[in-house]
Structures are given as C-alpha cells and as structure tokens.
C-alpha cells in the first residue's frame, strides 16, 4: 500500500508542533491525544491498528493491539481525513518540550527503528509496529531502549524528541549513547547494550549502568533531553524546599527538617 502524499509545516523552534495540510480524501494517522487543532472539514476516527494493509482483518488488528498494550502504548491510533472542499489543516504536538523530526521514509530505506514513544504522526499507509529486541541483555538492561518501534512506508512520517536533536551519520563506526538519548536509527545499524565501564564507573559515574552501542552504516538520531531524565530530576528535587536543590547539602537539610 502506497502512503498518502501530505504537505506539512513545522511551527516553532524549540517546543514545536506540526501542521499537516490534507487534500480532499487524504488521511494522516497520529498517536491518540496528539492533535492540537483542526480546521472545519476534517473528520477524525479512532481505530485499532495503524490503517496499513498489513493490519487488515480483525485478528491482525487484535495481534497488533496486544503488542501495543504490552509496550505501554495506546491501544488505538486516530485517523484524520479531509472530507471537506479544498485543502484543510490539522496540527499535532508532542506531550513534552522538544522538537519534531520529519522523515521522508523513501530516503531512509522505507524503515526506521525508534524509541517506543517517538512516533507522532504519519501519512496513511505507514505501518507502525512494536519490535522486541531478541537479545536478553538488551531486554533486561536497555531501559527506554528495550522496546523499540518500527515505522515502515514510502511517505512522510514524523517522530518527536526531547531537547536538541542531533543527527549522526555512521560509516562503520561505533557510537555509545545513553539509552534514553537514542531516538531512532535506520537499517544497517546494529543496536546492543553494554556495561558502562568498570564497577566504579557504573555505580558512581552518573551515566547509568549500561549504554546503548550503535554500529554500522546509516543514520542515527539522538536527543539531548529525554523526558525520563527530566522527570527524574523534577521528582528528585521536588522536596528540597530551596536548600540547594539537587545538592548533598539540600538533602541533609531535608533530613534535618524531618527530625
């Protein structure tokens, strides 16, 4: 199934949203809850599955839904179709501060592997699937990288990332990154999890116990501020009461206040 051809505009510089322009009868598929606004003439429908041919049939949709439930993703996607006269627009935004990466899937071998919560929206006909990494080490220690998402198609797809986005081109090189900082990668890149140095570095280095290792030839997208990292910092400092938030002295102050 060929994907619908859609036009788009990314609005904003840091906390972005994407405005998709649809011709009559064109459809864009988005994660549930991602819509920001839509013009008159656009109708939306929540469906089980992503609308690609491979998901046709009740059992196929049920199987896809089961995998999404296991991964913690929403059971449904929302389809927005222009049923009016002339071009109409619908906009989507990420649920946290960051940027949107437009992907012309035809230029990247028609398949991208990404973090399970990276997908934002795509042209109808794009297949969104869950890819469980087969390596046991990756499964137990990969953190955000354990359950990955695959996006397949020949049209436009859009993924979301936190903070600044870095695009790296690998030509046989090896790149090690924090598992949460990995957004996605193309075919030709092998993904694995390895220990973050020796025991001292793992316990006191502050970089986590394990790092994602990417090696091969292709494109890698990274994010500077994973939502999980931002949330952890907020939770860690929420009870500091202003006594040097995040510092050892602040923590001692909290203990003294509790006595």
Summarize the model shown.
This protein is α+β, with helices and mostly antiparallel strands and 259 residues long. It has 5 helices and 17 strands.
> H/E series, N to C?
EEEEEHEEEEEEHEEEEEHEHH
What is the rounded Rg?
20 Å
Largest sheet entry? 7 strands, antiparallel
Total count of domains: 1
User: At the third CATH level, what is the topology name?
Assistant: Double-stranded beta-helix
Query: How many alpha or pi helices?
Result: 5
Percent in strands: 35-45%
Morphology call: globular
CATH class: Alpha Beta
By CATH, the superfamily comes out as Mitochondrial biogenesis AIM24
Quaternary assembly? single chain
> In the CATH classification, which architecture applies?
4-Layer Sandwich
Per-chain topology:
Blueprint: E1 7-11, E2 17-22, E3 27-31, E4 35-38, E5 42-48, H1 58-71, E6 76-82, E7 88-93, E8 98-104, E9 111-115, E10 119-123, E11 127-132, H2 136-141, E12 147-152, E13 156-162, E14 165-178, E15 182-186, E16 189-195, H3 199-204, E17 210-223, H4 227-237, H5 248-258
Antiparallel strand pairs: 1-2, 2-7, 3-6, 3-10, 4-7, 5-6, 8-13, 9-12, 9-15, 10-13, 11-12, 14-17, 15-17, 16-17
Description of the structure:
The chain is α+β, with helices and mostly antiparallel strands. The protein has one domain (7-232): Double-stranded beta-helix (4-Layer Sandwich). The chain has 5 helices and 17 strands. Strands 9, 11, 12, 14, 15, 16 and 17 form a 7-stranded antiparallel β-sheet that branches. Strands 5-6-3-10-13-8 form a 6-stranded antiparallel β-sheet. The longest helix is centred in the N-terminal third of the chain and has 14 residues, at 58-71. The chain is globular.
